[in-house]
Design brief:
306 residues; mainly beta; OB fold (Dihydrolipoamide Acetyltransferase, E2P); six-stranded antiparallel beta sheet; five-stranded mixed beta barrel; 4 helices; 14 strands; 13% helix; 36% strand; globular
């Protein structure tokens, strides 16, 4: 017990230490990056273009990234903390969540600087992945002298659970559950009833997915739903080979499906071998039950007939 307490105290000593000091964004806020972001996200909000454009608030962290070259003025406290956890056997890492607070809109021409601090290291926690520690960093992003926003990022550094010795009748791990919140609860309720519901703005008629509290096109908070026909096509895809996850059996295809209604969603393609999935392949919606509680929408691919 004393050894565990001593190790926890060593970790706690990193709280409040700097992970980055007065670093500068690689580029000022600029219109091309805003345009690329909006095109990738399918965000047509008029506030993000024109002479009075602002940057989408969710780009906050993008302006702090240094690209493949990284930042040369590295602070060592964060790396030391991760090395300490590695040496103690907590060798795996997973990002768990992030939180952002927006205080002032960013506009083209703003020069970005930021500081980062190790905000907290949790007590030892036991999760389904393994036992470890949650590490939270807080980044304060500034535009000139003004605090523009705050970005908190949390990871779990953990020792993986070893595969339990099973009898010959091995149990299949359960499929991960979706995160249901107040914004998307209606979508998952529809899935439970084998109905795929698409949000539609009642202000301008724009459909959207995933479900959001407001319209990206006109900003209206009012919406209704339409039921998807189930017809679609593969817009893009990847084949997952590694790393393996419990309840998944690689290789398998994960696709971005473009529905007939004009929205896109990520799901699995079933019914065809993973190496036969192609961009443009027509697919049809199905609902697949993974256990007594979990139902997910998947898409059955249809190979072209030669």
């Amino acid at each position: 017990m004393a050894a565990r307490d001593e190790f926890g105290a060593r970790l706690k000593a990193y709280e409040g230490r700097s992970a980055a000091v007065a670093r500068a964004g690689r580029d000022p806020v600029n219109a091309p990056m805003i345009r690329h972001w909006c095109e990738a996200m399918g965000d047509t909000n008029p506030a993000y273009e024109g002479p009075d454009a602002i940057a989408p608030p969710t780009m906050l962290q993008a302006w702090t990234m240094a690209g493949l070259r990284g930042h040369t003025d590295r602070a060592h406290a964060y790396e030391e903390l991760l090395d300490l956890l590695d040496e103690a056997g907590y060798t795996s890492v997973v990002a768990t969540d992030c939180e952002q607070e927006y205080l002032r809109p960013l506009r083209p021409g703003d020069e970005i600087t930021f500081d980062s601090v190790i905000e907290s290291v949790s007590e030892k926690k036991t999760t389904k992945l393994g036992t470890g520690y949650f590490v939270t960093t807080r980044m304060d992003v500034r535009a000139g002298p003004d605090l523009a926003g705050t970005h908190r990022f949390r990871i779990l550094k953990y020792a993986p659970v070893r595969q339990a010795r099973r009898s010959s009748a091995r149990q299949t791990p359960s499929r991960p559950r979706p995160v249901v919140n107040r914004d998307n609860a209606g979508f998952w309720e529809g899935v439970r009833r084998h109905t795929l519901l698409i949000q539609r703005c009642t202000g301008c008629g724009t459909p959207r997915h995933p479900w959001l509290p407001g319209c990206n096109a006109c900003g209206s908070p009012d919406w209704d739903t339409v039921e998807a026909s189930g017809e679609g096509a593969v817009y893009s895809y990847v084949v997952m080979h590694h790393p393996p996850f419990p309840a998944f059996d690689p290789p398998y295809a994960v696709a971005l499906i473009e529905l007939a209604e004009g929205v896109r969603m990520i799901s699995n393609v079933v019914g065809v071998p993973y190496d036969k999935v192609r961009i443009g392949m027509p697919v049809r919606l199905e609902f697949q039950a993974y256990d007594d509680e979990l139902v997910l929408p998947v898409f059955r691919g249809r190979e072209e007939v030669a």
